[in-house]
């Protein structure tokens, strides 16, 4: 890795730390959630009341697996706080520094191919606790020094610069694969991304593989990391990565510490090592048939888009869900070469829908308006002919809905926060619950379909991770497994007569199968049209045709074939999951350790919500001459209380400022406050003889306020509303008696409302095609000063001439009292000018954003340029004021120019956008510099 300068370290520290903070959700749980904890030396597991079994399971896995896997990463141990979240609707988890904590999101996914079929609580514990061990054993050498100096933010910085993210995730995926009979390292689906690149002959550079692209599909670093980690363990022993991680984090080599550590312990250059590792897997996963399937695309072809979950309206008409890097997801109907958009899709957690008799039913994702850790999955029904949509359920957590034969009922998987899974049978007209299918074994049903009015066909996951295709009796809940239950993922069942079609893992590929229900015979579907693709998923069956999708370097692509051209080859059972010739998975003493772990019930107690409220974790420097500051940041484990102690020095004026800021987010609304004390403020005034005199004073500022944040992310729009109100009191201790009245103490109110609304933004677009952001701020004194200021501003986004272009208008108006300018100027002034706080200000501007190039190229694993984009702008500001003589003043401030933005990745991990601006002033800059031509560096920015 690149060795940064001291100044670069400080800047990057801020950027990396900001990214770490954004991974968490402040104040996300309602106060009604009560918490319990299990406290052991390795981990404190914190979970909502009622999730005792999950809390005990997480703790048991950690306690019984911890020592067994330490030798491969290191023996240092520091307790981690793990918070279990049960109200979100996806499976995920993370371990973060600053502060050192982890969260598990425990709702299982329907798609068994993506993460596998192991219980989320088991998989997340094995995967995420490996990250805990990585962090604990990286706290060495220079990383330890920065940790000591700057807290956990310093460790984030040092470790992030030294060790690539592919190592952390690859090692964690290897751990979940080693300790179980499954894990993503045994799933062909996990490798589909790299397989697709190899089949299409996409020989991307290493930096492109690491950083991605706005035009081409590039897999993430999880499969890349697994391939490199497993190859390293096979070739150089189980402790190879412990040595490499230690030396890299310690910066045994200051320049490219990871690469040099790898060479030291393997004897191979970094390039040679990664090439050998990828070739090992390429030799197994790339078959001639796959290359043949990719030949239909041009070598220069970029990403096309995804076509998912096909359904036949008839043999000549197919319906599917379409999305791309430039298009919002939509349900479409295709007949021949003609495609018609039925309706744009609402926000969803996956792409699944079910079509029958002219109607589509799917589950739409909706976050809670206030509590960001609470989400819902609500059912929507679309009329295909008209495109009209109606909402069927509210505040539910339903997945994979499907109609019965006459569209009178719907079956859906209910996944409540309690973790007690069930099949619900609903009235398709009003969404009312008809019956909940008994489920005493707490099986997880995936993609259920009606077989008849009394029975459901579903892919079923047991608690041990084994899956089968099963027949479920609606009234009794009796489960009749039609296939052998094993660890091979199975999903996407569809019923046609007495035959079930589905996808399952078989060898190194995911294939289509058919199962005749009456005699329970299993067939692998074969044919030339099935052999040349990467995975075959989501079958749809017509009268004479079969449709399905497969993966490619250009997205999920839809295929069709005549049934008569397909063969049904009988099979007795599915083969064991492949290990892709990773020998170390079988040779380690920890192989399949999960099978021997038993849940041990340990004492649990109440977890007080205000435990360690300050929990200071990082000292963050900020150097931007003339401002020099240090902030000590704190955050409690439940992320409901944040605090900051700060010191700031201004070199120009020479003042010193001490401050404390805090916000409490466990209630509604948020409560915040701050205290700032400034020493040695100075300015110049005039005495009675009009002589310039230096004025010195100390300043105390107090603030208390509340904030109401609401998010209405439902349907196809995300709307946010924030109201903030605070009372502010400043005390000025002026040292010169003659000037005490010139700087009186002041009490004022600050009220603001911000409303933003936007449609979903496809990946390649610079801005949303439609969005609005409105802000209204009013500040006024509540003393005899009689000062006030009003600011109203708005930004409006529209489509440009080309799909990836964006037209943006902004307007603003600011007005204040006639006598005072106590409040600072907040109006976004015309670019290029030196602004002044005038009595009346009016602003209008127009921007036209457009992409220029997608270089997809970088230098020395330091900086990678993904996109170069431009913006042409025109700003107009009109100002009015009154001089003390009473003479009116008014002026125009017009400017035009161009901005050049660089969308970059730094150190192969951190996204940073910066730019250059050229401004031509059409009027004189009467408050500032000379000349009409201005050049400006645009620092990192974000929208909304």
What general outline do the C-alpha atoms trace? Answer: globular
Count of discrete domains: 3
* Binned strand content: 35-45%
User: Helical proportion?
Assistant: 10-25%
Q: Return the average pLDDT rounded to an integer.
A: 93
Pick out the low-confidence regions: 1-22
The span between the termini is: 33 Å
SS-based class: alpha+beta
Q: Largest sheet, described in full?
A: 17 strands, antiparallel
Number of helices: 16
CA-based gyration radius: 31 Å
Structure description:
It is a single chain. This protein is α+β, with helices and mostly antiparallel strands. The protein folds into 3 domains: 6-14 and 46-286 and 581-606, no CATH class; 303-571, TolB, C-terminal domain (Neuraminidase, 6 Propeller); 763-944, no CATH class. It contains 16 helices and 47 strands. It has a 17-stranded antiparallel beta sheet that branches. A 6-stranded mixed beta sheet has the order 4-5-3-2-1-30, covered by helices on one side. It has a 5-stranded antiparallel beta sheet with strand order 22-23-24-25-29. Strand 45 (888-906) and strand 46 (910-921) form a beta hairpin. Mean pLDDT is 93; it is low at 1-22.
Descriptive key words:
47 strands; disordered N terminus; 944 residues; Neuraminidase; alpha+beta; six-stranded mixed sheet; globular; 16 helices; 43% strand
Can you summarize this structure?
This protein is an alpha+beta fold. A hairpin with a 2-residue loop joins strand 36 and strand 37 (717-734). The longest helix has 18 residues, at 52-69.
């Amino acid at each position: 890795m690149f060795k940064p300068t001291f100044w670069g370290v400080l800047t990057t520290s801020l950027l990396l730390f900001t990214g770490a903070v954004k991974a968490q959700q402040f104040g996300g749980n309602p106060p009604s959630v009560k918490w319990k904890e299990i406290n052991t030396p390795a981990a404190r597991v914190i979970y909502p009341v009622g999730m005792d079994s999950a809390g005990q399971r997480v703790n048991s896995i950690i306690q019984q697996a911890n020592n067994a896997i330490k030798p491969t990463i290191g023996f240092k141990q520091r307790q981690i706080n793990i918070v279990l979240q049960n109200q979100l609707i996806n499976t995920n988890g993370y371990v973060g520094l600053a502060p050192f904590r982890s969260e598990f999101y425990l709702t299982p996914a329907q798609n068994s191919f993506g993460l596998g079929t192991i219980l989320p609580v088991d998989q997340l514990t094995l995967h995420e606790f490996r990250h805990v061990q990585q962090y604990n054993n990286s706290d060495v050498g220079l990383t330890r020094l920065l940790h000591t100096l700057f807290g956990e933010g310093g460790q984030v910085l040092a470790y992030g610069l030294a060790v690539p993210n592919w190592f952390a995730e690859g090692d964690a995926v290897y751990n979940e694969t080693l300790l179980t009979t499954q894990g993503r390292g045994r799933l062909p689906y996990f490798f589909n991304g790299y397989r697709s690149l190899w089949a299409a002959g996409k020989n991307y550079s290493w930096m492109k593989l690491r950083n991605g692209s706005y035009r081409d599909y590039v897999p993430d670093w999880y499969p890349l990391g697994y391939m490199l980690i497993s190859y390293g363990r096979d070739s150089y022993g189980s402790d190879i990565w412990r040595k490499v991680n230690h030396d890299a984090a310690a910066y045994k080599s200051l320049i490219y510490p990871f690469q040099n550590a790898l060479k030291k312990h393997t004897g191979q250059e970094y390039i040679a090592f990664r090439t050998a590792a990828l070739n090992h897997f390429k030799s197994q996963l790339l078959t001639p048939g796959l290359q043949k399937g990719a030949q239909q695309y041009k070598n220069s072809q970029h990403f096309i888009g995804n076509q998912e979950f096909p359904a036949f309206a008839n043999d000549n008409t197919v319906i599917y869900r379409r999305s791309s890097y430039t298009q919002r997801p939509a349900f479409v109907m295709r007949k021949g070469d003609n495609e018609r958009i039925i309706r744009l899709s609402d926000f969803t957690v996956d792409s699944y829908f079910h079509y029958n008799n002219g109607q589509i039913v799917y589950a739409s994702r909706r976050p809670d308006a206030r509590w960001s850790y609470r989400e819902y999955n609500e059912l929507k029904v679309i009329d295909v002919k008209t495109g009209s949509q109606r909402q069927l359920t509210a505040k539910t957590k339903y997945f994979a809905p499907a109609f019965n034969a006459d569209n009178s009922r719907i079956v859906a998987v209910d996944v409540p926060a309690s973790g007690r899974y069930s099949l619900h049978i609903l009235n398709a007209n009003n969404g009312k619950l008809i019956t909940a299918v008994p489920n005493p074994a707490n099986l997880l049903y995936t993609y259920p379909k009606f077989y008849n009015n009394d029975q459901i066909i579903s892919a079923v996951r047991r608690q041990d991770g084994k899956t089968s295709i099963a027949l479920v009796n609606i009234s009794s809940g009796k489960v009749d497994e039609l296939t052998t239950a094993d660890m091979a993922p199975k999903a996407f069942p569809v019923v046609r007569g007495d035959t079930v079609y589905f996808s399952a893992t078989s060898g190194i590929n995911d294939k289509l199968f058919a199962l005749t229900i009456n005699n329970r015979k299993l067939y692998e579907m074969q044919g030339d049209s099935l052999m040349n693709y990467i995975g075959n998923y989501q079958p749809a069956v017509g009268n004479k045709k079969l449709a399905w999708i497969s993966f490619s370097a250009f997205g999920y692509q839809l295929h069709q074939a005549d049934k008569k051209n397909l063969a049904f080859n009988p099979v007795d059972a599915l083969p064991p999951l492949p290990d892709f010739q990773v020998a170390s998975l079988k040779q380690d003493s920890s192989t399949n350790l999960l099978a021997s772990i038993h849940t041990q019930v340990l004492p649990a107690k109440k977890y007080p919500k205000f435990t360690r409220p300050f929990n200071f974790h990082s000292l963050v420097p900020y150097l931007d001459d003339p401002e020099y500051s240090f902030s000590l940041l704190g955050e409690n484990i439940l992320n409901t209380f944040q605090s900051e102690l700060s010191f700031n020095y201004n070199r120009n004026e020479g003042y010193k400022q001490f401050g404390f800021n805090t916000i409490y987010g466990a209630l509604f609304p948020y409560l915040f406050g701050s205290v700032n004390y400034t020493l040695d403020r100075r300015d110049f005034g005039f005495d009675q003889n009009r002589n310039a005199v230096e004025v010195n004073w100390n300043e105390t500022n107090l603030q208390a306020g509340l904030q109401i944040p609401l998010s209405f992310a439902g349907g196809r729009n995300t709307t946010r509303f924030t109201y903030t109100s605070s009372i502010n009191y400043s005390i000025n201790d002026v040292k010169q008696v003659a000037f005490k009245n010139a700087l009186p103490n002041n009490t004022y109110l600050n009220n603001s409302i911000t409303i933003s609304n936007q449609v979903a933004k496809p990946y390649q677009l610079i801005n949303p095609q439609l969005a609005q952001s409105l802000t209204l701020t009013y500040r006024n004194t509540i003393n005899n000063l009689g000062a006030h200021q009003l600011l109203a501003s708005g930004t409006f986004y529209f489509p440009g001439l080309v799909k990836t272009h964006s037209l943006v208008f902004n307007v603003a108006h600011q007005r204040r009292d006639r006598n005072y300018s106590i409040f600072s100027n907040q109006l976004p002034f015309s670019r290029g000018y030196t602004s002044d706080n005038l009595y009346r200000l009016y602003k209008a501007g127009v921007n036209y954003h457009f992409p220029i190039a997608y270089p997809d190229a970088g230098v020395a694993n330091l900086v990678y340029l993904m996109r170069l984009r431009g913006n042409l702008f025109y700003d107009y500001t009109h100002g009015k004021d009154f001089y003390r003589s009473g003479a009116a003043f008014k002026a125009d401030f017009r400017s035009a120019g161009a901005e050049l933005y660089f969308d970059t990745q730094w150190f192969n991990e951190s996204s940073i956008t910066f730019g250059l601006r050229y401004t031509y002033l059409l009027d004189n800059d009467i408050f500032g510099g000379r000349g009409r031509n201005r050049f400006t560096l645009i620092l990192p920015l974000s929208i909304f």
